[in-house]
């Protein structure tokens, strides 16, 4: 049986005067969970019949995907999870243990998949399951992956509940000049149109983003 194809969920982003009010409202509302946004490339990890495929955006610009796939396969093969589809971010971590997009673009750093959502496991489609149940099941699967040596190649995205914890997480993201955060409703399903994800970009990240865009253009001009 072929695994179902999932369209990656696209978060909404508040603009202008809505930015601050939306952010504070999501922090105060206990029905919304904050996840840290990693600076990498969005991808779907498909595992079926002992084979791993990473379906990435702009994958032709990133070398070494087969090496990442082989490392993931080695870990997942030792579990008994069956078929698996995970929504991830392909990330390179620098010596400071922070994500670095430039390292990823140049095939450097410690590459890992940061996993933040579960879409399929065993024979069950989780795309219509509520977020908190997906998160709980994903945590159980991740514990099995840790037992088979998955800590370096697979990381679980940090999630925060409660207004104080969410605000502290956002302050940390700004201090580390990371891309931003995502808010997800506890009762939302994947690709929910009524309860969409919200992406809050770190204002301090824009200068970093501009420089990385220039680096990306420079690198692609050098490639055939």
Instruction: Please count the beta strands (DSSP E, at least 2 residues each).
Output: 10
Distance between the termini: 37 Å
Tell me the count of domains.
Answer: 1
- Most strands sheet: 6 strands, mixed
**What radius of gyration results from the CA coordinates?**
17 Å
Q: What's the average pLDDT? A: 85
Q: Given the helix and strand composition, which structural class is it?
A: alpha+beta
- Uncertain ranges: none
Q: What name does the CATH topology carry?
A: D-amino Acid Aminotransferase, Chain A, domain 1
N-to-C series of helices and strands = HEEEHEHEEHEEHEEH
CATH top level class name: Alpha Beta
**Alpha plus pi helix count:** 6
Share of residues in strands: 25-35%
Oligomer: single chain
Relative helix content: 25-40%
Shape, principal axes of CA atoms: globular
CATH architecture: 2-Layer Sandwich
CATH superfamily: DNA ligase/mRNA capping enzyme
Describe it.
The chain has 224 residues and is of the alpha+beta class. The protein has a single domain (18-222), classed as D-amino Acid Aminotransferase, Chain A, domain 1. It has helices at 18-28, 65-77, 101-105, 131-147, 163-175, 206-222, and strands at residues 32-37, 41-48, 51-56, 84-93, 110-121, 124-125, 154-156, 159-160, 180-185, 198-201. The strands form two sheets. Strands 2, 3, 4, 5, 6 and 7 form a six-stranded mixed beta sheet that branches. Strand 2 (41-48) and strand 3 (51-56) form a beta hairpin. The model has no long low-confidence stretch (mean pLDDT 85).
């Amino acid at each position: 049986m072929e695994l179902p194809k999932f369209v990656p969920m696209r978060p909404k982003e508040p603009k202008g005067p809505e930015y601050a009010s939306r952010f504070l409202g999501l922090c105060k509302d206990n029905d919304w969970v904050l996840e840290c946004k990693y600076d990498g490339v969005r991808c779907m990890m498909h595992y079926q019949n002992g084979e791993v495929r990473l379906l990435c955006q702009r994958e032709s610009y990133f070398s070494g995907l087969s090496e990442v796939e082989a490392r993931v396969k080695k870990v997942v093969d030792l579990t008994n999870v069956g078929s698996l589809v995970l929504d991830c971010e392909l990330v390179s971590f620098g010596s400071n243990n922070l994500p670095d997009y430039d390292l990823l673009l140049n095939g450097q750093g410690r590459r890992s998949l940061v996993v933040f959502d579960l879409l399929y496991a065993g024979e069950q489609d989780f795309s219509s399951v509520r977020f908190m149940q997906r998160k709980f099941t994903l945590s159980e699967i991740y514990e099995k992956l840790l037992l088979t040596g998955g800590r370096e190649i697979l990381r679980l995205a940090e999630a925060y509940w409660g207004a104080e914890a969410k605000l502290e997480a956002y302050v940390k993201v700004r201090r580390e000049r990371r891309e931003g955060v995502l808010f997800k409703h506890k009762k939302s399903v994947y690709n929910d149109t009524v309860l969409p994800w919200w992406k809050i970009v770190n204002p301090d990240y824009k200068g970093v983003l501009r420089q990385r865009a220039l680096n990306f253009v420079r690198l692609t001009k050098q490639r055939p």
